[in-house]
Amino acid sequence: MDKNQNFFDPYNFTMQQHIPHNTNMPPQDMNPAIDNPINPAMYYEQQYMYYRYLTQLLEYKMKLKEWEKMNNSK
Questions:
Q1: Global pTM?
Q2: Which residues contact 17 (CB under 8 A, 6 or more apart)?
Q3: Residue 49 confidence (pLDDT) above 90
Q4: How many CB atoms lie within 10 A of CB 10?
Q5: Buried b (16+ CB within 10 A) or exposed e, 34-64
């Protein structure tokens, strides 16, 4: 994950919603499916993925230490 990536905070109402300007996209009024480009679910999904990454990393380190102890004891 990029550490400089900005995460959407649904509780920060002072944050400006910055939508990058892309000339290849049709105007907003032509695409009614994209009413709100910043979705609060995106924030929770990013946080969950980061939590999952950290837990997997910790689990890996714990199993690695167990394996090293087992091999050192032999």
A1: 0.44
A2: 37, 38
A3: yes
A4: 13
A5: eeeeeeeeeeeeeeeeeeeeeeeeeeeeeee
